[in-house]
Design the sequence.
RNA sequence: GGCCGUCUACCCAGUGGC
């Protein structure tokens, strides 16, 4: 329950439930503590998270690898890589073995900080400790190479990945397609897509969403529409994300007719428009000065139970 | 022997920097 609440943005209720446990004479175990601490860190309450961590120690509840991983991730996400590394040291000194998540988290932080080489160094360290890179490791490093503009090194890493028995998944695909959109042409995007298919990627809803969005972002709605037709032919069912991506493409091209046509269709198909859908459509209407219509749409979203942000 | 908590990308907008 605590985990379910905090994962759905109801941290406040999670806190109450967590407190209630004590009143009922129950002591949270390390799983509940860890989930709660993760929630605190993700809402930015770092001092509180550390206080709860100390409470765990006081009550004699074991801090395990996952607890450490949660703290390391919380620190990394706020740019405190150094402190995170201190925790890794602490784990090693305590004889608590770091796992894939520990290393992957630190690698990701180094990548995001622009230190891909440090990330690869950590990968070596992990391997020396007996942990072979997993799919998340490869995806993280691939993302690091993309962000630092080292696209030329990706082929080799993909091959290593294959040799290790991992086919690219839809996350690998998303990372690489986004890497291509930044500098590459539409051809590059397709070539990358083909390359991944050759390496064992199975096309699914997510890969279509990524591609459709990639082309829509570039205003290439005709190509995007071809992909849409292709996915339907394969029996895949478009999601809110598919609709939003295409609606956005048409809006950016000032083709509001097509946008609203899709909006109507998604509703008929039983796909509920979300906040993003309305932000896209409102932006489209405002861009061409249709303020009256924008106002009506704003009412419509409220009627549908959505809160404008 | 098993289960619950942690890591990688992603649809609109929003903040900051250049």
Sequence:
């Amino acid at each position: 329950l605590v985990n379910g609440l905090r994962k759905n943005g109801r941290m406040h209720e999670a806190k109450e439930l967590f407190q209630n446990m004590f009143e009922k004479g129950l002591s949270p175990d390390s799983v509940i503590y860890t989930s709660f601490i993760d929630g605190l860190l993700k809402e930015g309450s770092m001092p509180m998270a550390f206080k709860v961590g100390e409470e765990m120690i006081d009550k004699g509840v074991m801090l395990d690898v996952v607890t450490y991983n949660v703290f390391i991730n919380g620190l990394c996400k706020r740019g405190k890589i150094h402190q995170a590394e201190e925790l890794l040291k602490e784990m090693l000194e305590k004889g608590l073995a770091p796992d894939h998540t520990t290393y992957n988290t630190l690698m990701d932080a180094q990548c995001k900080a622009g230190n891909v080489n440090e990330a690869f160094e950590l990968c070596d360290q992990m391997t020396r400790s007996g942990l072979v890179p997993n799919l998340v490791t490869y995806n993280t490093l691939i993302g690091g190479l993309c962000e630092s503009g080292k696209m030329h090194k990706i082929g080799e890493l993909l091959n290593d990945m294959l040799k290790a028995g991992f086919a690219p998944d839809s996350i690998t695909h998303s990372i690489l397609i986004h890497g291509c959109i930044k500098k590459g042409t539409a051809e590059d995007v397709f070539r990358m897509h083909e390359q991944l298919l050759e390496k064992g990627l199975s096309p699914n809803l997510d890969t279509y969403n990524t591609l459709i969005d990639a082309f829509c972002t570039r205003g290439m709605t005709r190509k995007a529409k071809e992909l849409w037709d292709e996915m339907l032919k394969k029996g895949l069912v478009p999601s809110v994300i598919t609709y939003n991506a295409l609606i956005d493409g048409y809006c950016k091209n000032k083709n509001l007719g097509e946008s609203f046509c899709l909006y109507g269709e998604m509703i008929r198909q039983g796909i509920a428009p979300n906040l993003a859908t309305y932000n896209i459509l409102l932006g489209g209407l405002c861009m061409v000065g249709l303020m009256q219509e924008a106002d009506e749409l704003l009412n419509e979203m409220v009627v549908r139970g959505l809160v404008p942000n």
Observations:
- Residues 71 and 177 of chain A are 31 Å apart (CA to CA).
- The two ends of chain A are 28 Å apart (CA to CA).
- DSSP finds 18 helices and no strands in chain A.
- The mean pLDDT of chain A is 94.
